[in-house]
Amino acid sequence: MNILVLNGPNLNLLGMREPEIYGSATYADLQALLQKEAHKLDIAIEFFQSNHEGALIDAIQAAYGRIHGIIFNPAAYTHTSIALLDALKAVGIPTVEVHISDPDQREPFRQVSYLRPACIATIKGKGLPGYVEALHLLHERYHQK
Ligand code: DQA
Description:
By secondary structure, this protein is α/β, with parallel strands linked by helices. It contains 5 helices and 5 strands. It has helices at 19-22, 27-40, 53-63, 82-91, 129-144; strands at residues 2-7, 44-49, 69-73, 95-99, 121-124. It has a 5-stranded parallel β-sheet with strand order 2-1-3-4-5, with helices on both faces. 1,3,4-trihydroxy-5-OXO-cyclohexanecarboxylic acid (DQA) binds next to loops. 1,3,4-trihydroxy-5-OXO-cyclohexanecarboxylic acid is lined by residues 10, 73, 75-76, 78, 99-101, 103, 110.
């Protein structure tokens, strides 16, 4: 099974960025955590982070026919991007939306997710373990088939 972990803008700054909201673990810590868990589950995992909407769209398109599940924290693009929604719908790859914080408990502008309709689940407010939960969910779903 091949999984793509996609992270949107400013998530490269994890650890330094608003640690009271996002915690002190870094993006490298996140990768190490998921890599370890993927190894246990015999999953081939790859990572892509970008601050650019188009680059994230390119990564979703390139996943078609190759990737069995996407773990996606679209960061601020969650609340703005019809183009990312369309990309997910186009490829039809099972995708779990993940947020470190719980955007539904924050400012009103964060309480809208354009991408949620194209995702099989949303995991929010659980910190980095939320990504691990998403990995397990995609793994279980893949092996149910
Ligand atoms: C986030 C929540 C978004 O509202 C915010 O723009 C982010 C991170 C989260 O992981 O909690 O950049 O997706």
